[in-house]
Amino acid sequence: xxxxxxPRLNRRAFVIGTAAVGAGLAIGLDIPxxxxxxxxxxxGSPEVGAWVVVRPxxxxxxxxxxxxxxQGSLTGLAQLVAEELECDWTKVTTEYPTPGQxxxxxxxxxxxxxxxxRGIRSSQDYVRKGGATARVMLIQAAADAWKVPASECxxxxxxxxxxxxxxxxxYGKVAEAAAKLSPPADxxxxxxxxxxxxxxxxxxxxxxxxxxxxxxxxxxxKLPGMLNAAIKDCPVFGGKLKSFDEAKVSxxxxxxxxxxxxxxxxxxxxxxxxxAKTALEALPIVWDEGDNAKVSSESIAKWLAEGxxxxxxxxxxxxxxxxxxxxxxxxxxxxxxxxxPYQNHATMEPMNATALYTADKCEVWCGTxxxxxxxxxxxxxxxxxxxKCDVHKVMLGGGFGRRGQTDYVRQAVMIAKQMPGTPIKLLxxxxxxxxxxxxxxxxxxxxxxxxxxxNNLVALHYRLSGQSILFSLRPEALQNGMxxxxxxxxxxxGEAAFGYSVPNLLIEHAMRNPHVPxxxxxxxxxxxxxxxxxxxxxxxxxxxxxDPLEFRRKLMGNxxxxxPVLNAVAEKIGWSTPAPQGVYRGIAQVMGYGSYVAGAAEIxxxxxxxxxxxxxxxxxxxxxxxxxxxxxxxxxxxxxxxxSALFYGGCTxxxxxxxxxxxxxxxxxxxxxxxxxxxxxxxxxxxxxGVGEPTIGVAAPAVLNAYFAATGKRIRxxxxxxxxxxxx
Amino acid sequence: xxxxxxxxxxxxxxxxxxxxxxxxxxxxxxxTGTKYGCGIAQCGACTVxxxxxxxxxxxxxxxxxxxxKITTIEGLASGDSLHKVQEAWIAQDVPQCGxxxxxxxxxxxxxxxxxPKPTDADIDxxxxxxxxxxxxxxxxxxxxxxxxx
Lengths: 728, 149
Ligand code: FES
Ligand code: FES
Hints:
Strand content of chain A: 15-25%
Shape of chain A: globular
Oligomer: heterodimer
Number of helices of chain A: 17
Number of strands of chain B: 5
Bound molecules: FE2/S2 (inorganic) cluster
Number of strands of chain A: 29
Radius of gyration of chain B: 15 Å
Strand content of chain B: 5-15%
Order of helices and strands of chain B: EEHEEHEHHHH
Number of domains of chain A: 3
CATH architecture of the largest domain in chain A: 2-Layer Sandwich
Strand order of the largest sheet of chain B: 2-1-5-3-4
Number of domains of chain B: 2
CATH class of the largest domain in chain B: Alpha Beta
């Protein structure tokens, strides 16, 4: 068992919701009188199955393996467990087991990874079973005590009732006995129609401390004797650190040490981060920038444009009939080229991690979207075995995919390793965060559509050129070199399937990987694929002289899940009635992360360059909605993130480096620019789709299509700021 | 050395006078509720009240703040009773990740002090904080709820 004594965060950190509770969770085995093992939480309360701890006062502690980063999964997952557990929701609290504990218990809590809108949908089955298992054990314990058959007992609100006699007891009273029972081999989950808590917009479990400053994020971690580090990695990706002149800064106030971090970075360690950062800025550094220093946005764009040429090799992701032949013989064809830039995640809280390395252990405190990946990074960077390492997850100041990567964790350990016994908090400046993102991949797309003499779409050729995320981050997931994820939203089938039927279809990807490191950025490849396809759908509708909605509907007859979601949006925005004077509409739909989504926007445009977004309507069919209040917030948030990228985003490359340095050059939407998002949830049941990401796909195309409706001009590249278009 | 009055308490801190107030608050006074987001007065995560006015503490030096009344998110409640903005934030479930919310709440508290019944236009003008999670609709709703109470 992984029993450790961790340096104490301040006491407060342990009682704030879930944030740091995991740091205090030590699992011990208690084998009284040789009976079955009872696993106990740090406070001595018994575990009733791995997911549930019940305290004598009936408090139910639900274990959460996935990370909470604002998306609300912590609350949603607790709802799933509590639904089956039949416990009193007002007495539910949560805690994070650590990855080290999970590994030591044969990964009893499953996957910790929190990306791909997977938090709920990929764990819903086993966490509900965790709740049901605990319920069965608690009821059995009560039945045993009463010497009655368990089948005569029921549970609700943490109270167990023996129906024939009317006797009652509570979970807290029978938890000790329940913990000694063997878990049932199989449990039956409730029929969704019997759900009481799933589907309710209950309040989040982690709000209060976010309003008082008490919530502990990675940046707030404090350990006794801790020092602070500021870091600079070679601004040209792939470049190396040549030398630095420590003597120039070693006398500066608070500076303790200047250390090399791997081959590429240098860090100043000081008493405060402000001192560390000030000294780092004064530190003379010589970089070996290498050949990548010759790369620019222009050179990347040129290389990608070459990939649009049919003569170049490409992977085929979706195919039907013979698109090239059909286009060649068509009565009419249209063609357009679109592009999408790099984007930085710009999480509100810059990357950071705190590491303590000693000869026999290495522990890290950080916000991470993937506790187990962070754990693996600690093992690798420390060189210590699993039983001597652990990761304590704290609240994330935003993730959006960025904190699924572990570069910052590795760096913190590499620095701490050079100062054994001293806890080191590494914090990136915003400038470092902008310079060393894992960027939304860059792509271009050439689309050709062809019509017969009756304006029916007979062929579509979609040729994507650009970067693959999997090539860089998960090469093992490539299929004979092809990146299947590159076709998110336009795939043949699966969780991101194309929603239109076109008799002759060719969707292909000419993979071209510039040196800028790509990453999973909220919505991932759905972002550009949905812009390209949905804006081009509008172009096709225009060329066919048809209404954009009607044009789409005709192609969606064989897509019975896609279509109702589009219809729901059309109805809500009032597509069949004229928009107010001077206001124009755009519409879009896509599938991603197992959910069907659509969006529509109403905008007005002044002088061709000032956009006011009046209304946004978004619809989703994620199968089941666990917490509608949180789903509504995720949808709204995805629009803010997607439209910020559309209007203000875009990272450009000069001399091999990212040019944007902070929010002055990489802006984000403010309250005055964002209308309320009107959401329509149409869960059709029978499947579990994701929520955090899918709707971002329709945000930009809905607005771009409305812009065309307003101005008659197509915008085929992002961001709008480069075209001097901004918010009114 | 600098003397700062934060949340009614005097802190004698070993900081250089040109240190941004944000870092003196977070690292020297140990009050980490005030957040770092940009360091260049763009995002508002570091908003505190200085003599009752909402200010971005990353853009204010310690020497400028000396002798003034500084209130951080930790000092917004009076004793055990939360400030009405904090209460509204909880009632409305405003925060997502919450990282921007200390600054957001401080900005809103200052606005409501000045204009107890702000219009949407007042909100648009006064609340310019970045929220990457996109909580704007809930922020606006919560402000109106307070104003109409
Ligand atoms: S940290 Fe001060 S405004 Fe961003
Ligand atoms: S709640 Fe996450 S940045 Fe605002």
